Amino acid sequence: MHKAKPFNIVLFQPEIPGNTGSIGRTCVALNINLHIIKPTAFDMSEKAVRRAGLDYWKYASIKEHESWEDFLQTEDPSNLIFFSRFAQQKPFYEAPYDENCYLIFGSETKGLPQEILRASTECTYALPMFSEHIRSLNLANTVTTAAYECLRQLNGVK
Mind listing the pLDDT tens digit for each residue in 101-121? Predict the structure, then answer.
């Protein structure tokens, strides 16, 4: 089996268990780390996820962080790549993906806090949306799209 270069997915205070479950599945499929910054709006215990039918959850590499500050203190913040619909016209495929980078996504209803976005304008990217009828994309879909673009660029896939 092919071994991809590693990178990380970071969820900032996720709210919807189904999205986190789908993102966890993508992380298992790509053999990458999932970081969850608390608080979450749901129970992350093994029993709760097992009841939700996430039988692959035991194979996920998950690190929980008590806060954004805790995440920054325990991880290597040298290559943080933020995703927000408020990015200044910087498409996700232009992000500086690198081995061991962190792809950071906000919660489903609030996104990333303004103070984080203001401090990271230069490294914030978006997936394009061309319809005025759509406010945002589903978090799990966005994470999966960005993760596969990162994989493609890191591993030289055309």
Answer: 999 999 999 999 999 999 998
- Taking the CB of residue 52, how many other CB atoms lie within 10 A of it? 15
What whole-number distance in Å separates Cα of residue 106 and Cα of residue 10? 9
Q: Which residue, chain included where needed, has tokens 């990015």?
A: 87
Of the listed ranges 41-55, 72-86, 97-111, 128-142, the one predicted with least confidence: 41-55
The residues spanned by each domain of the chain are 8-154
Q: How confident is the model at residue 36 (pLDDT cuts 50, 70, 90)?
A: very high
Name the residue among 130, 147, 140, 134 with its Cα closest to residue 95: 147
For 8-154, CATH number out of 3.30.40.10, 3.40.1280.10, 2.60.120.200, 3.20.20.210 equals 3.40.1280.10
**pTM as predicted:** 0.92
